[in-house]
């Protein structure tokens, strides 16, 4: 019996609001961001005001979500941003945005594979004496992630739900434990006053902190990808988007504020530098605070939850990227065979393409003897930050243009919110690109790592990769007219 469904469509009504939230919050991997990005944002950025930078970015993304979710009542498509940009800015720009997004999602999967393999290899050797190279653990995860992605989407949601709940609970226990033990040291103004948030200017500390905060939110935008598989997508996708942005923002703001409070607002930079060994071991900051304020037991739990958080991120981005590939295959942009689904309603071709791409790049890194964390993780995650911010910017512009041509939606949703988010996201993209050397570790020298726009040749190639994909998509759309009608119909569905 063939495993293809008769209509090659994704299985309907499989996900509720919570299921979608599980996917997107898992994709953002808040525990990884809290242990990896927040200490660096404090140390290299705006110090005690880093929590304010995370809150600011969260508010900007809420504004983005207003226009973004307004489009969900007009378009329900597994390609999400591809369809939104296509509806507002034309099919060719839609194709370009989809290719840029695929670059970003493949890159973040690679980043997580690298971090997962490097971290798990160390933990298994230290705790159980099991010595295997990092790529062996990656291969094991790759097999499991590929298998789960080929099952019904609600199976993946249940796995992610369990992992995400443990992760969120552990972070809140750590955060509130630190705050309760250091309640007399709370200094809201030091962390959240605009004067402190923007201290150092956008070319200095504030810009660095905001850039790391922007990179930490990657993943929330995937809510619309699951619209075709959602129960009542017109309501489920907007609700899931606001829940996801809200939860991620509260997590980062509360726990990062707890870290600042536990270390003291006036001494936090020096304390972070000492605990993290100058930024070389940023996870030690949260773990040290948790050890002294909650207990060693939670540190042990969190060390393993970092691993499960990375695995959850792998599964979430595998599902998201495979649906982008599926949408492009169904629309005729990529080979039509990629627009097929199996008996579970999973996008078979998209899963296989995504998995094979990841495996090939991992093999290349192994052959070149490159480090899974310093090279694979930092290079790839920095690419994703640029790609997602670029496409979010295009979506905001597309929302404005679409609703100007199709009036009837409230002016705040259709014009004001997306206009503000366009400006904010454009500036955010500038900050990410100018600080790509810090995000990727590809500055020409250690002395130049804090200098904006200072990059190696490889760094320039990687920072421009999403733009190259966008241009390729534009050109491909212009010359590939064979399935133009089908593509336009798919965007308009």
Question: What does this 3D model show about the protein?
Answer:
This protein has 493 residues and is mainly α. It has one domain (17-491): Up-down Bundle (Amino acid/polyamine transporter I), CATH 1.20.1740.10. It has helices at residues 17-28, 30-46, 50-70, 81-89, 91-128, 134-149, 153-181, 188-192, 194-197, 205-216, 233-263, 268-275, 283-293, 296-330, 348-367, 372-405, 411-434, 436-440, 457-479, 484-491.
Order of helices and strands: HHHHHHHHHHHHHHHHHHHH
Sheet-strand content, in percent, reads under 5%
Q: Are there runs of 5+ residues with pLDDT below 50, and where? A: 1-6
Q: In CATH terms, what is the fold-level topology?
A: Amino acid/polyamine transporter I
Number of helices: 20
The CATH architecture is Up-down Bundle
Structural class: mainly alpha
Overall 3D form: globular
State the end-to-end CA separation: 30 Å
The CATH class, by name, is Mainly Alpha
CATH-wise, what's the superfamily? Amino acid/polyamine transporter I
Secondary structure blueprint with pairings:
Blueprint lengths: L16 H12 L1 H17 L3 H21 L10 H9 L1 H38 L5 H16 L3 H29 L6 H5 L1 H4 L7 H12 L16 H31 L4 H8 L7 H11 L2 H35 L17 H20 L4 H34 L5 H24 L1 H5 L16 H23 L4 H8 L2
Helix pairs in contact: 1-7, 1-11, 1-14, 2-10, 2-11, 2-12, 2-13, 3-10, 3-11, 3-16, 3-17, 4-5, 4-16, 5-6, 5-14, 5-15, 5-16, 5-19, 6-14, 6-15, 7-11, 7-13, 7-14, 10-17, 13-14, 14-15, 16-17, 16-19
């Amino acid at each position: 019996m063939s495993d293809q469904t008769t209509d090659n469509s994704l299985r309907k009504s499989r996900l509720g609001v919570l299921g979608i939230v599980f996917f997107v919050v898992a994709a953002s991997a808040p525990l990884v961001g809290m242990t990896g990005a927040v200490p660096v944002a404090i140390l290299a950025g705006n110090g005690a005001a880093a929590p304010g930078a995370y809150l600011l970015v969260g508010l900007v993304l809420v504004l983005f979500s207003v226009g973004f979710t307004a489009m969900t009542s007009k378009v329900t498509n597994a390609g999400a941003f591809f369809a939104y940009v296509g509806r507002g800015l034309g099919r060719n720009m839609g194709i370009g945005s989809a290719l840029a997004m695929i670059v970003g999602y493949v890159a973040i999967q690679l980043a997580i594979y690298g971090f997962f393999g490097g971290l798990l290899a160390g933990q298994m050797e230290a705790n159980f004496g099991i010595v295997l190279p990092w790529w062996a653990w990656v291969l094991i995860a790759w097999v499991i992630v590929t298998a789960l992605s080929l099952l019904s989407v609600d199976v993946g949601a249940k796995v992610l739900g369990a992992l995400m709940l443990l992760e969120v609970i552990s972070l809140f226990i750590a955060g509130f434990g630190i705050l309760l033990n250091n309640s007399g040291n709370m200094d809201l103004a030091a962390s959240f006053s605009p004067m402190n948030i923007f201290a150092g200017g956008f070319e200095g500390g504030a810009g660095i902190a905001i850039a790391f905060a922007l990179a930490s939110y990657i993943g929330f935008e995937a809510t619309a990808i699951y619209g075709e598989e959602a129960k009542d997508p017109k309501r489920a996708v907007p609700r899931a988007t606001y829940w996801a942005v809200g939860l991620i923002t509260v997590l980062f703001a509360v726990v990062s504020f707890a870290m600042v409070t536990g270390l003291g607002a006036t001494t936090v930079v020096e304390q972070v530098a000492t605990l993290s060994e100058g930024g070389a071991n940023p996870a030690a900051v949260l773990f040290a605070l948790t050890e002294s304020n909650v207990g060693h037991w939670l540190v042990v739990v969190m060390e393993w939850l970092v691993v499960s958080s990375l695995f959850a991120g792998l599964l979430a981005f595998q599902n998201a990227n495979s649906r982008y590939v599926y949408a492009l295959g169904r629309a005729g942009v990529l080979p039509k065979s990629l627009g097929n689904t199996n008996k579970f309603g999973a996008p078979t071709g998209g899963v296989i393409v995504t998995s094979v791409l990841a495996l090939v790049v991992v093999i290349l890194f192994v052959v070149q003897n490159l480090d899974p964390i310093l090279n694979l993780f930092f290079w790839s995650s920095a690419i994703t930050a640029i790609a997602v911010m670029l496409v979010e910017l295009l979506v905001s512009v597309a929302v404005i243009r679409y609703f100007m041509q199709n009036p009837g939606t409230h002016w705040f949703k259709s014009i004001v919110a997306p206009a503000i988010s366009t400006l904010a996201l454009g500036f955010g993209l500038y900050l990410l690109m100018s600080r790509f050397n810090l995000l990727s570790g590809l500055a020409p020298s250690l002395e130049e790592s804090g200098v904006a726009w200072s990059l190696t040749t490889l760094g320039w190639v990687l920072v421009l990769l999403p733009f190259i994909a966008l241009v390729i998509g534009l050109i491909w759309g212009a010359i590939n007219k064979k399935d133009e009608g089908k593509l336009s119909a798919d965007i308009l569905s």
